[in-house]
Amino acid sequence: MARLSWWAAVGALVVGGAAGAAEPGSAQVHVRGDVVSLQGGALQLRTRSGDLVALQLPENAKVALVSKGDPKLLRSGAFVGTAAVPEPDGRLRALEVHVFPSSMRGTGEGHHPWDLKPGSTMTNATVAEVGPGGAGSQGTGSSMTNATVSKVGESGGARELSLQYPGGEKKVLVPEGTPVLQVEPGNRSSLVPGAHVFAVASRRPDGTLVAERLNVGKDGVVPPM
């Protein structure tokens, strides 16, 4: 995770409790909540469990905006990211899908653990094919897949994305009604009180959390990472 480019990491940011480790053994922490205040480099968030978390916001912290997108964007050649849960048949069932600009294509490709739910993963990849989705089931764990769509198909509104990355491929079922969102570059001016945020921070030895990357919901969107 530490070696991913910022855009790849933003693509991977795709809503849980307070703060939790990004991966087992990682020094990174994920914070999901709403902005309470930003004063200079001091950012305060109220987590979804109601706790207050203080973050230091350095000048080089990266900010991205997340807004509602159109399912029609899930087409061949698109570069996407999706949080998902495993299906008994080996596929992943999407909880949401993020669509990224062309400038993000191919960054941070791979498959990584994630903390959206127990056993979840995050995958950066390229969508190689999209076919009929079928009924699918209701898996329990979760994953995040970022990829480029190469072919798309539909079945009763459901789609199946074949997401390819160097050395691997994942099949992701996208049921009808699954949220589709777009990601774009942002800045700290969007960190206003009440803004919905997903933050990736590093914990210093003294316990201080230093923000590295933040996804901020646009037009009331809650980043579903």
TrEMBL record:
**What is the annotated signal peptide range for this record?**
1-21
Protein keywords: Signal
> What is the protein name given in its UniProt record?
DUF5666 domain-containing protein
